[in-house]
Design brief:
The chain is an alpha/beta fold. It has helices at residues 32-38, 41-57, 67-82, 178-187, 225-232, 292-304, 327-335, 338-342, 381-394, 411-415, 433-439, 463-482, 485-488, 499-507; strands spanning 5-6, 86-107, 113-114, 121-123, 130-138, 168-172, 192-196, 220-223, 238-263, 268-278, 312-319, 344-350, 361-363, 400-402, 420-424. It is built from 14 helices and 15 strands. It starts with a strand and ends with a helix.
């Protein structure tokens, strides 16, 4: 690999780092049953507790480019090294963007109201700075939208016909990117943009959005459906008769952060299984579900299979700056030579696996139930999905597909043709009555009510989800560590039966 510096000496001990304990690898955990028995909920929670302690010691978060993240990287690197992995650190520069001071959204027109940051609204990542008080103009709204992504509000320049220059544009989520809506508003002379949720099931909560780089010229916030409905004042197109104050104060500066890479000393170097999770949090909280859960489960799995001699090399990666647009995983993939990319058999991604109001989601690798990603799903992704479906079926556990849209760190991998798969338990989406009947929990509430908020702490989890998903991670990692024949016809060296068959038998 290029541009990867060597081990821990390159990473100074960050303030507040938790001392690494000694890894206790399970003896010969070389099949699903053995590894799943070794990977315990308590073991995963130990790592989550360490990440919470790190956040507590570093301003309440573990955002990329801050001491909280660097201490998290130190912890993971030391634990993986103690378990016997070859650990390298990959530093990279990125643009840190976030709130320098809390944003403001106030309704000035009676009945006046001050909306709550992080509850009613949130600044969009890559929003510009600005402090404006101006009338609100609704832009081609359909309230509520009849279905997700049905609204086209603000997606075309024609939507802004007759727009009053200097006004604040009120647009609705749906169809096109938030960036496109903001760009069209800017071209029409808007002084700010408010994007509110659509109002259909699953699209009512506060909208935590990303505009994508670079920094925009206008202050842009996302809101819940209720806030947008309040501000539109019964109007679907044109002046709403409401005046608001919109203030966003953004910090944007280049900082350095680190991906942590730990791989097995042995295994076929030309047939690598990448196991990924992002280690960074948002600025609002410690991120112990998003994504301390996937990071912790991967670390526990790595520790417990440390004594296994896999047929294929397994490369665990904890990516940084995912919350700012998959920056760390994109940097990693772009750093590889064509041969190094070709050596990667597949990528497994685990992002939010302990949501308190969970559903067992599996990435829809065959895209039979969701819209395919741009360029299509790489060949082999369907087979990865099937490994999870077979495993959960063997346990008598229901699953649902989730979009294979590249919105987490597997995105840069599938964009270069590397097959991928993974697990997810839900974020801001709303649980349906049908899902409640299958998985329990509460219909009409988000899968994770603390998504991207300060309350995403050690207490924000479902023991059931975290335990079941950690077992599924262990099953898939050891399956592909021993054979990727299902994906690329490579069985690995040695006399070993098809791993999926052996491990599925062990899983029952």
């Amino acid at each position: 690999m290029r541009r990867i510096i060597s081990f821990i000496g390159a990473l100074a001990l960050a303030a507040g780092a938790v001392a690494a304990g000694t890894a206790h690898a399970a003896p010969n955990a070389n099949n699903s049953a053995k590894l799943r028995a070794a990977v315990t909920l308590d073991g995963v929670r130990e790592h989550q507790r360490a990440l919470q302690d790190i956040a507590d010691a570093n301003g309440g978060n573990r955002q990329a480019g801050t001491p909280g993240h660097e201490a998290s990287a130190q912890y993971v690197a030391e634990r993986a090294a103690a378990a016997g992995y070859d650990v390298t650190l990959q530093p990279f520069d990125f643009l840190l963007v976030g709130d320098a001071t809390p944003p403001v959204l106030d309704r000035i027109t009676p009945p006046s109201r001050s909306f709550v940051n992080g509850v009613d609204f949130a600044s969009m990542t890559y929003s510009g700075s600005g402090d404006v008080t101006a009338p609100v103009v609704a832009v081609d709204l359909v309230v509520p939208s009849p279905a997700p992504n049905a609204s086209t509000s603000g997606c075309e320049a024609a939507d802004f016909a007759g727009f009053s220059a200097g006004a604040i544009a009120l647009v609705q989520r749906g169809t096109c990117t938030f960036r496109s809506k903001a760009d069209n508003a800017l071209a029409a002379g808007a002084s700010g943009v408010i994007v509110f949720n659509e109002g259909n099931p699953g699209r009512t909560a506060v909208l935590n959005g990303t505009l994508s780089p670079p920094l925009h010229s206008l202050p842009v916030v996302g809101t819940s459906f209720e806030v947008g409905d309040n501000l539109r004042n019964g109007v679907s197109n044109g002046s709403t008769g409401v005046t608001v104050r919109l203030r966003v104060d953004v910090v944007a500066e280049t900082r350095t952060t680190t991906n942590v890479i730990a791989e097995t000393p042995g295994g076929a170097a030309d047939n690598v299984v990448v196991v990924g999770a992002h280690l960074d949090s948002v600025s609002r909280g410690p991120g112990i579900n998003d994504n301390g859960s996937g990071s912790a489960a991967n670390l526990e799995t790595a520790e417990q299979m440390a004594k296994v001699k896999p047929r294929n090399k397994v490369r665990f990666i904890w990516f940084s700056a995912e919350e700012l647009g998959l920056v760390g995983s994109r940097f990693y993939v772009n750093s590889l030579t064509p041969q190094e990319r070709g050596n990667i058999a597949l990528m497994l991604n685990f992002d939010m696996i302990g949501s308190p109001n969970f559903v067992r989601f599996v990435y829809d690798g065959d895209t039979s139930d969701t819209t395919p990603p741009a360029g299509g799903a790489p060949q082999g992704s369907a087979q990865i999905e099937q490994v999870y479906l077979d495993y959960f079926a063997s346990q008598g556990l229901a699953t649902e597909p989730t979009a294979f849209d590249g919105r987490s760190d597997y995105g840069p991998f599938i964009a270069t043709g590397i097959p991928a798969g993974g697990l997810f338990t839900g974020a801001e989406g709303i649980k349906t009555p049908a899902q409640q009947a299958i998985y329990g929990g509460t219909a009409g509430q988000p899968f994770d009510p603390c998504y991207h908020l300060a309350c995403d702490t050690f207490a924000n989890y479902s023991a059931t989800a975290l335990d079941q998903m950690s077992d599924a991670i262990a099953h898939s990692v050891i399956t592909f560590a021993q054979s990727t024949a299902l994906v690329n016809d490579k069985k690995g060296k040695g006399n070993f039966n098809t791993a999926a068959q052996v491990n599925l038998q062990a899983a029952r």
